[in-house]
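thought: fold this chain, then report.
action: predict
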Amino acid sequence: MTVIAPSSTVAVVGTGTMGQGIAQVALVAGHRVTLYDAAPGRAEQAATAIAARLGRLVDKGRLAAADRDAARARLTPATGLADLAGAALVIEAIVEELTAKQELFHALEDVVGEDCLLATNTSSLSVTAVAGALRHPGRFVGLHFFNPAPLLPLVEVVSGFATDPAAATTAYETAAAWGKTPVRSADTPGFIVNRIARPFYAEALRLYEERAADPATIDAVLRESAGFRMGPFELTDLIGQDVNEAVTRSVWEGFFRDPKFTPSLAQRHLVAAGLLGRKSGRGWYDYAEGAAEQLPHTAERCPAPESVAVHAKLAGPSAVLRELIDEAGIKVTRDRTPAEHEGFIRLPGGARLALTDGYPATGDTSGPAIRFDLALDYRAATRIALAPGAEASPGDVREAVGLFQALGKEVSVIDDVPGMIVARTVAMIVDFAVDAEARGIASRADIDTAMRLGVNYPGGPFEWAENVGRYWVWDLLDTMHHQYANGRYGPSWALRRSLKLNH
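observation:
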């Protein structure tokens, strides 16, 4: 197989939001497109809706009127599967039910030619399982577009166990010819994005269940300290709590209930209560007209300490804090106290301020301690989370707050939990990515591309691994593993092995 020529017909089965979006992409790329839906009249309605969207593109100057007219002429609603007989590619975007998809493709095999490429847009089902009902599964591939398909560039090209490499290459090259950015993935629960993104949601929900902080504060810290475009609570409200939980549950079941993928009871309760997010008017946030805005916890202004002492070199990306403290005009001296730990900041009152390492601040053998959270770029970050140990006094906390405020940061004080917010989230995502690469799911380049484009991450997990250091990630997770001892945070063998190979 080669790239599917624009002169060939592309058929789309299923005319919901995703089906219409995929059809529009193929139309704009120059293909004849045939739409089919099992519900009478749906294909005609979808064709009308697509034509209207093409018209709006003309109004916005993004499409020439002549190209719109030509695209409309190439769009044909089908009255039955037999109308798809001449298609070179059929993309399915029907309900996420394995049996329904298997029955559809089994029927399509009796209609289309032997050289027709068959593709599913499933986001959660096994491509291998969908193809299991086919006589010729080699021509079957996953083509997972992201919503809205006309706007988002990423397409995951998923090879099932029986997929012919030539079929996957054709799908990949065709997606690229349509102006998309394709990435290759093996068939695994969640593929690339939905597999590796699970900790972004799961850790936030776990922190909420542990009462470390409220949703607005967790969202604000991940946005303003780590650079994520949206926090997990506001993002799941946008996606739909039912949709997000269904994907989480599907991936968890796909991995035989591995504790690393365990769903959230808090989210289950939200779904059971019908609080699905924006579409229902309320989720983690209230979207009713006149509802009070939920604001993150932000510490009141505190005076900056006149001086601090720094012990050794601060850990990883937090090393730049020494420069920021100097630039803020705060005197820095050297702390010569013997300590086994990496660098820390000694506050005037004697408390030790250090980057979270997976241990809680409470019970620190060196005395009163306060942890600060990871920021992927401490210069750019506009908010920092602090977690005081039980031994830290209110005065110690005010000194820590005042220090970071003097560096131009808002401060959120959260409960003392291992790994805090950003650190545990980033560490888990990095570990998932390293494990996926080691298992042959995707290349590191494709993983970074998928996470940047598919879920708008501020960087790729392998970029973060280089920034914060794989050893720091491993050490944090290994420490948390011993704090929780439930298997959730145990670092993968792939991460441990990568440390051995790099030494």
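thought: worth noting. The CA atoms of residues 412 and 441 lie 37 Å apart.
final: tokens above.
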